[in-house]
From TrEMBL, chain B:
Membrane topology qualifier: Multi-pass membrane protein
Residue intervals of the ABC transmembrane type-1 domain: 92-307
Primary localisation category: membrane
Family listed: Belongs to the binding-protein-dependent transport system permease family.
Sorted UniProt keywords: Cell membrane, Membrane, Transmembrane, Transmembrane helix, Transport
Lineage start: Bacteria, Bacillati, Bacillota, Bacilli, Bacillales
BP GO terms, sorted: transmembrane transport
Name under which the protein is recorded: Sugar ABC transporter permease
GO CC, one annotated term: plasma membrane
Pfam families documented for this protein: BPD_transp_1
């Protein structure tokens, strides 16, 4: 984009300076809350609550993490989330990849019918209650299936994968394989899939993050707390506690102080739990960013 | 099968028969492809079309013991009850105003950001900015709600401290209905504006460098080149995204709203989808809430088709 050898005029310099200020501002606005949370999770809650800690940690403590790691609910939630994410993503890939490949084949009779049938669901659906009743009638409420099956595939991701197959797998490969008497199944497993590792990675990442972060199906389908994924545990700690803490009435000084201390510890735990739950994704994300961006770009070629 | 075959041979042209045979040959040769599509087909049939069958309870009085088919029909009773209710206009207004506010702020910001990123020289700084601004996209909605609540909580939240440090009185963001929409929209911008630039940057990378070279030779400034080369390049992408956004005007970020709702801000935060959730799954008014949900989906579908139609008349960038 930069064409060297051409002198920047004064106007252009001013434009560039404004542009850099704008970009740096965006960077600061996005980065600040994240840095603040990391600092707050290892700072004395006294300084955090009063606003004295506003950027770097003050009054270093690991008590928040200690409480988080001692909480069995969080561990159970973590284990459940890992289980749901692994199983869910495996199912997502099993449904998405073969379907996307079939839809990418021009010689697949019925391709337009299937595509139209899938696309309709992008614009119109049964809605919350009929879906709930269906899952209930299938006897899946309060089982792992209610978490992984209703979201087994996303039409967006099928389209992205199909676009990849269409644009990156040469048709000659398929022709050659078929002349050699290779069946479609062998072709797909032995030739197409090994060539499609980039798109499999993108799909696994998209679905994986979605499964890791989802809470709503757990909220409506699970009623046994032992089966709650991490996000539901987080909801109890981060959202519900705060709401109940707001409705405080009159009280004497001693219990107010005790409550205050409890509130301080609670806020420390909040920051720690945010970091602990988001860390796995934020830690691997910079290394995988390339794949995520690739996924969005493949999808944007033909939407 | 044999019957149709013989009928065809009797009446149709030989050429058509040949075509037909060719199609059948392809179907048989590629039978495994139907195996490939079967899981997705079954998934959409059961979990997308299954609930569509269940929509009929919007016109019935659903009684769980009688099932969907056995429950008695009541026609449009539930719809009439919803349109006549005192909260109908409040719900519709809240839903529409949150969506339009979100669209007015959340739609242009990624575009401006992408145009600005595009002018930054490739290198470490650009990679840093992109990595950092994309990252919040991966924060879960629960954590996002938790962050909003902690940052804005009265007397201890950091945003409150900053506002007071600047010398203003901090409002009660979490409980004041007047602030709910702003809180919702701007937290959304924080979380997804960076990620939203990717699709525009992809479009911008397709600009022919010769256009820029020619413009430089003609003495165009950087600003003029952004204005007359870069912006027209991303207009098709903008149009498509705008249409898609219009199609979900009544489908606001339900999960985040549900998490941020409390009894005090309900006046501004209750939208159609949270109402459906409460009436349907909390209060078990299955038929009534299905009717409300159906109203919502139908308005969405109609909006999407209308906007697409309008765009198709005025430019060639429509969805279909």
């Amino acid at each position: 984009m930069m064409i060297s050898g051409v002198k920047e005029t004064g106007r252009d310099k001013a434009f560039l300076i404004f542009n850099y200020i704008y970009v740096i501002l965006a960077l600061v606005i996005v980065a600040y809350p994240v840095i603040y949370m990391i600092s707050a999770s290892i700072s004395d809650p006294k300084y955090v609550g009063s606003g004295e800690m506003w950027l770097w940690p003050k009054g270093f403590t690991l008590k928040g993490y200690q409480i988080v790691f001692e909480n069995s609910k969080i561990w159970t939630g973590y284990a459940n989330t890992i289980y749901y994410t692994l199983l869910g993503t495996a199912i997502n890939l099993f449904v998405t990849m073969p379907a996307a490949y079939a839809l990418s084949r021009k010689d697949f009779v019925g391709r337009n019918f299937f595509m139209a049938m899938f696309m309709v669901t992008m614009f119109f659906g049964g809605g919350l209650v009929p879906t709930y009743l269906l899952v209930k009638n299938l006897g899946m409420v309060n089982t792992v299936w209610s978490i992984v099956l209703p979201s087994a595939a996303s039409i967006w991701n099928i389209i992205v994968a199909r676009t990849f197959f269409q644009s990156s797998i040469p048709k000659e490969l398929q022709d050659a394989a078929q002349i050699d008497g290779c069946t479609n199944m062998r072709l797909f497993i032995k030739i197409i899939l090994p060539l499609s590792m980039p798109i499999i990675a993108v799909m696994a990442l998209f679905y994986g993050v979605g499964n890791w972060n989802s809470y709503f199906s757990a909220l409506i389908y699970l009623n046994d707390e032992a089966k709650y994924p991490l996000q539901m545990v987080l909801r109890q700690i981060l959202v519900l506690q705060e709401m109940s803490a707001q409705g405080g009435g009159a009280m004497d000084a001693a219990s107010a102080a005790a409550l205050n201390n409890k509130a301080e510890v609670a806020s420390l735990v909040k920051y720690a739990v945010i970091i602990v739950s988001t860390l796995p994704i934020i830690a691997v994300y910079p290394f995988l960013q390339r794949y995520f961006v690739q996924g969005v770009m493949i999808g944007s070629v033909k939407g | 099968m044999q019957d149709t075959q013989s009928i065809l041979t009797g009446s149709a042209l030989p050429k058509m028969k040949k075509e037909k045979n060719k199609v059948w040959k392809r179907v048989i040769q590629n039978w495994e492809l139907y195996l490939f599509i079967a899981p997705a087909f079954l998934y959409f049939l059961i979990f997308s079309y299954g609930p569509m069958y269940g929509i009929q309870i919007a016109f019935k009085n659903f009684i769980p013991t009688k099932g969907i088919t056995g429950s008695p029909w009541v026609g449009f009773d539930h719809f009439v009850r919803f349109f006549d209710s005192y909260y109908f206009w409040d719900l519709l207004w809240n839903t529409l105003s949150i969506s339009l506010y979100d669209l007015a702020i959340g739609f242009p910001i990624p575009i401006i950001l992408a145009l600005a990123f595009n002018e930054v020289k490739d290198g470490f700084f650009k990679r840093l900015v992109q990595t950092v601004t994309y990252a919040p996209h991966f924060i879960s909605v629960v954590v996002m709600a938790g962050m909003i609540i902690t940052f804005l909580s009265p007397s201890t939240g950091i945003v409150i401290h900053i506002i007071e440090w600047l010398g203003f009185d901090a409002p009660q963001f979490l409980t004041d209905p007047a602030w709910f929409k702003t809180m919702y929209v701007f937290s959304g911008v924080w979380q997804s504006a960076g990620w939203g630039t990717i699709i525009y940057l992809a479009a911008l990378s397709g600009v022919d460098p010769q256009l820029h070279e020619a413009a430089i030779i003609d003495g165009a400034s950087r600003f003029q080149r952004v204005r007359h080369i870069n912006i027209p390049t991303i207009v098709p992408t903008m149009t498509i995204l705008l249409i898609l956004n219009m199609g979900s005007l009544l489908g606001v970020g339900f999960e985040k709203i549900l998490l941020l709702q409390n009894p005090l801000n309900m006046g501004a935060s209750d939208v159609i989808s949270t109402f459906v959730y409460r009436a349907g799954l909390v209060d078990a008014q299955y038929s009534f809430s299905t009717a409300v949900g159906l109203f919502n989906s139908v308005v969405n579908a109609v909006l999407l088709i209308t906007v697409n139609q309008v765009v198709r008349r005025t430019s060639e960038n429509s969805l279909w």
